[in-house]
Amino acid sequence: MKRLERKEWMDFDDNNNNNNNNNKSTLPHYNYNYYPYDEKFKETLIIKPLSDGKLLTHFQFSVKLLKKNNKEGSFKHYNYFPRAIGQIVQSYNARELHLTFTQGKWNYEDWGYPIVPSAGTGVELWAWLRKDGKLDKNWKSLTNALAGLFCASLNFIDDTITVQPKLSFKPEGSYNASELFDNAELRSGSLPHENVCTENLTPWIKLLPCKSRSGIASLLNGHKLYDSNFHSMSIHVRPFCEDPECINQQLEILQTVSTVVDPVRVSGKRDWSLSQVFGRQLSNACPLAEESNLEIILPENGDYKINPEANPDNNNIVTRRTPDVSGNNEKIAVYDLKKAQLVNSDLSMTWNEDQFDYDLNHTKPLVFAHRYFTGYGQERGGIKVNIFNKSPNISIPIIYYDVIPWYLKLYLYTLKVQINDQDVNSDTDNPIKELYYQPAVDRFRPNVIEAKIILSPNSLTTLSINFDKVFLKYTEHPPDANRGFDIGSAVISTISLNNLNDLNLTTFRDCLSLNNNNNNNNLEKEEGGIRIGCLHFPIRIYTETLLVSLPTPDFSMPYNVITLTCTVIALFFGSMFNLMTRNFVALSDNNSVNNDSVDNNSVDNNSVKDSVNNNGVNNNIVVEEKIDKIE
Amino acid sequence: MKKFQSNNHEKIRRLIMLSIWVIILIGLPLWWKTTEIYRAQLPFAEIEEWSKKREKLDIKFSTHFSLFIATNVLEGNNNLDFKNLDVRLKESITSKYNFIYSKHDVINTSKSIQFPVKFKIKEWNEWKDVLKEDFNLGQLNFTSKNGKYAFYILPGNNENQKTKVLVGNQRQAIVQIEQIEHWNIDFIEKTISNIIFNLFLPEQIATKKFILEPSTEANVELDSMRTMKYSPMYQVTFSLMNGDPSSLLVNWDIDQTVNKYLKPFVDKISVISNLIVESQIQHYARLTFEPQQKKITENINYNINNNDNDKYFYLTPDLLPHFINAAEWKLASAVSSYPTLNFILYVPSLEQSPLYIQDSKENIIKNNAFLIPRWGGVVINNPDRSTGIHNFTSEELKSVMSIFIMQLRGLLGVQDFWVEAGSGLDSSITIEFTSPQNTAITMWELDSLVRRRIAENIVATILTLKSLSQLVAEIPNMVVLDHIQTEVLLALDSLKKSCTSLQEEQYEIALQHAKKAIERAESAFFDPTMVSMLYFPDEHKYAIYMPLFVPISVPLIVALLREIKEFRENKKKKN
C-alpha cells in the first residue's frame, strides 16, 4: 500500500487532453432512456400458446456493437458484448458464428415453424470463416474454444464430421456485395449425441449483460427449463449493416432460448402463469436494456383472458406479420417492462374451458418432413425421407441437406425419388433439379447429399437411398457401443410463403445459380435494393435424428483371440518340438522289441505303430519315450 | 551301424534345438524393436552439462561508466590528476561488492555470475553551461546501449549543501559536489563508488539469488512473490466492475485512456514482454461477502460524498484476499493461454457505498487500491451517484491508471530504483530521480529489468530442460517425438547464443535469445504428447504374451537342461 501512494514518479503529458470532457456536462439528469454506450442491448420474451395445448416460450437477447474504431473492424474494449465470444470471433477470424444446443424434436406439424430456426437434437455449429491461409486450423481452434466455453464436446467436431455445405446455411448477416462471396468459407458440424443441460446453460447465461440477476433472464430457471418437451439454446453472431451502402457495420450477437412446456400435462387445461412455467416471477427489466419486452402471441380464436390485461389504448396490442404463418396478421400483446407494466404481478392466461380438447383441424405448416431407416439386420439398410408439401396450388422450392457418417456406405445409384408413391422415371418429372453428392472417405470425411428439389403442390416426395454398414475397428466404438450411433438430422431449407408470394420461381432459380458463379451484379440487378444476398431460405426444417446400430463386437474378444491363438501356437510348437527332438520306442510287455525296426522308424509315431504291428505284437503296446538309451 | 545312427540322431536333434534357440535369440531383439515406444534421442549429456554449469555459470554482466569530470574548476591548480581514478574506482567497487557477498551465505559460496565494472574518464569543458541552465539533463549526452552509463561530475557553489545526485531517465546521472574543498580525487572516488554501488546492488543480489536458488520458496523475496512468472506475452485486462447497474450506470473512456497513459509504457516494455490490452465492463459484479460498515466520524473527511446517510463501508486487510469473485466475474480469456494480468476498477453497489479499504490500524487508505500478487490490481471508486449515470472520462481515469501502471510495474518485476538506492547512501549525499516522461519506466529501470530477465530466462531454460530430461528418463512409457527433439536442440542453441551475446555485452540480443530459449524449452516440456502412454502398460503386455511365451519356453528350457545334463554325463563317461 505504501508504495502505491508514491505517485510523483509519473508525469503524464496532459497537453493534448482537452477533448471528450464535454461528455459529462451533457449527461441528462437521471433518465433511464439515455444510454451512454455504443452497444445496444434488447431483451424479449415471446410466449405463444401452440395449437396442441403446449406453450412456447422464447427468450431473445440481442447485443449490437458498432464496429467503428478502426479499419479492420477489430475491437478490444467490451461492454455488453461478451468478451469471450468477441475474442473467439476475432482471433479465429470468424465472420459469422451459429451455435445451437437442442434437446427434443420440434414438432412441425403441431407447432408450426419455430420463431428462430431450431436445430436437430444435439449440438449444431456452423460458421463462416474468412480465408486467411489457416482456415482449417482456425476451425479446429474455434471448436475447441467453444467446447471449453460451453462445457460441451464440440472439440469432437473433427475432419470426419466437418462439412462444407454448398447450398444450405447461407450467410445470415448482412454484407455489402463485395464481402458476400469472395473471402469466406463455410464450415459446419453437428453432434447429435450431445446432451444439453445446465452445465451448458450456466456459461450461456454468463454471457448476458445482466446475467440472470434482473430482466427477463431472471426467469431462466434450469429446473423448469429442462423439464420440458423441447428446448433449444443458441448463439448467433453475425454482422449487421446500418446503412444501405453498408459502410458502418455492426456486429450482433443474438442469444435465444426456446422451450416448449406442456401445461395440459399438469392440469388438463391450457392455463398458464409465469410462476407456474418458470417457478419465478418477473420483477423488473434489465437496467441495461434499451428495450425490454414481453410479448404474447394471441391465439386466433378461443375464449381466453390475460391477467394483467394488455391495454389496447396504450398501443400494447399490436398486429404484425410473422414470417412463418401463411401471411395472416397476428395479434400480439406487448408488455413494456421498462415502463414497469408487469412489476410484481404474475402474468397468467386462463381459458374458459373445463378441459383442453385437441383441435384436429389446426392449420399445419406447408412443408414438413420425416426421415427413417429402412431394412433390417446388421449388414445393410436404407434411409427414407418423406417431404410433404401441403400447399394446394403452389410448388415450393427446397434444399435438402443430409450428412451421413462414413461408417454408412451410401450407394448413389440406389437414390430413388417417388412422388405420391409413384416412381419418377423421366428427367422432366424429376423434382431434383440439382444434386451435390460428396462420397465418404473412410475415417476422413462423411457422405454429404445436397439437393435442390421443387415440391409439387399437395404432394409427398420421398427420397430413398441404400447403404452398407461398416464393421468398425474395435477402438472406434464409443464406450456405450451397443447403444448405437446417432445420425444427425437432415435439414430442409425452404422459403416462407410470404417470400414466395413476392418471388416467382424464375428468380428463385437465378438466385440458386448465383451461389455457383460469384456474379453479384446479377443479384443486385434482379433484387434491386436487396444486398443481403440469397437469403431466401430463412426456414430450416430439421428431421428426426436416427440411431443406427452397427455390428458390435464382443469387446473382450481381442484378449480372447490373443490367448486362444497363443495357446494354439504353443500347443503346436510344443508337440512339433517334442516330435523333432525325441525318439519314440515301442515297448511290449514281453520285451521282444525289435531294435532295428525301432531305430528305422523312430521318428514317426505312425511308423512306430506300424513297426509294432509288423512285428505282430498286438497286445499291451507301450509307447515309451526313449532318450538315447540304445547302446 | 547302430552307434553311427544313434550319433546321427543326436546330432540332428542338437541341430534342431540349436536352430530353434538361434531363431528365438534372433527374434527377441526383433520383437523388442518392433514393440518399442518411439523415443527421439535427446541431448541428455548436453543438458546435464548445462545444469551442472548452472551453479558456476560463466555469465558476466559488465557495466561501463563514462565519467565526465568538469575541468578548470579550481584556479591555478588546473586539473586534478585522474590517471588512476578508473583503476581505483574499479577496485573500490569490487571490494565493496565482495564484502556484501561475503555476508550472504548462498551468494558467497559461488562465483557463478559476475558484475565487472569498467570506467572511462573524460574531461568535460562545457559544464558551466549546464550549471547555468539549472540541471537540464536533456542536453547531456547519453548512450543508447544497455550497460553503458554516463556520470557527469561538476562542482557546485553552495557551500552548505550536501553532494547532490540527479539520476536522469535516460542512461545518465549528474553529480554535483557542492563543497568546493571536496573537489579532489579521493572524494570523487568515494562518492562515485558509493553511488554506483548503491544503484546496482539490489539488482545484483536479486539476480544472484535467483540463479543460485531459483526454486526454494523460503528464499523468495517479497518482490519476486509479487512478480509474475516470466512470459513473452501477457494479456492485460482492465475490467470496470459495476456492483449494481439498477442504481448507477457506468461507462469509461478506456480506449482513450489506454492510448494516452498506458501505451508509452507498453511500447517501452515490449523489449521484454508484449502486452495485449483489452477491457470489459461487467454489470452486477457482486462481492462474495458483506463489507463491514461504520459511522462517519469527524476525522475522516476524504472525499466521502454520500450525503444521504452518515455511514461508510470498509474492507479490512484480511477480507481483501476474498475480494475477487472468481466464480461469477468473467476474467479468464477464452482464447489466449498467456498469463492474464487483471486490473479491476470496482464501483460498489448503492447498498455498499461508499466503500473504502482500511489498513490494520483502521486508517482509510488514501488511494483505495490494493495489489494482488501475481494476479493484478484493484481500485475501488465511489463515483457521484446523483445522475444515475457515471462516465469515467480519461481525465478521471488518469489517477486510476497511474495506480494500475504502478501495480503493473510491480507485477512485471520493475524494481523501484529510489526505494533501494536511497537507503544505502551515506548521509552526505542526497539523491534524486528524474521521473520518466509518460513511459512510467526509466532507462535505468528498464536496463536493470532486461539484465535480470536474461539471467532468469537462462536459468529457467536450464531448469526446464533438466526437468524434461528427468521426466523422459523417469517415464520409459512415454513417446518422445521428433519435434520435441527439435525444440530441445533449438532451445540449447538459443541458450548458447544468449550466453555468447552476453559475453559480447549485447544485452538486447541476449534477451531475445534467452526469450526464445525459454519459449522453446517450455513448449517442449508442456507439449501435449509428452505424457505416458495409458493404453498399453507393461501389465497388459505380460498378460498378452504369457499364454504364448510360457508354454513355448517350458519344453525349450527343459530340453536344453536335459541336453546339458547329458552332455555332462557323456563327459564323465568319457573320462
UniProtKB/TrEMBL annotation, chain A:
Residues 1-25, 595-616 are annotated as: Disordered. It holds the Pfam family Gpi16. The chain crosses the membrane at residues 557-579. It comes from the Eukaryota. Coiled coil: none annotated. GO terms for cellular component: GPI-anchor transamidase complex. GO terms for biological process: attachment of GPI anchor to protein. The keyword RNA-binding does not apply. Residues 1-10 have a biased composition (Basic and acidic residues). PANTHER family: GPI TRANSAMIDASE COMPONENT PIG-T (PTHR12959:SF11), GPI TRANSAMIDASE COMPONENT PIG-T-RELATED (PTHR12959). This is GPI transamidase component PIG-T. It comes from Diversispora epigaea.
UniProtKB/TrEMBL annotation, chain B:
One of its GO terms (cellular component) is GPI-anchor transamidase complex. InterPro entries: PtdIno-glycan_biosynth_class_S. GO terms for biological process: attachment of GPI anchor to protein; GPI anchor biosynthetic process. The keyword S-adenosyl-L-methionine does not apply. It is found in: Endoplasmic reticulum membrane. Pathway: Glycolipid biosynthesis; glycosylphosphatidylinositol-anchor biosynthesis. Belongs to the PIGS family. PANTHER family: GPI TRANSAMIDASE COMPONENT PIG-S. This is GPI transamidase component PIG-S. It comes from Diversispora epigaea.
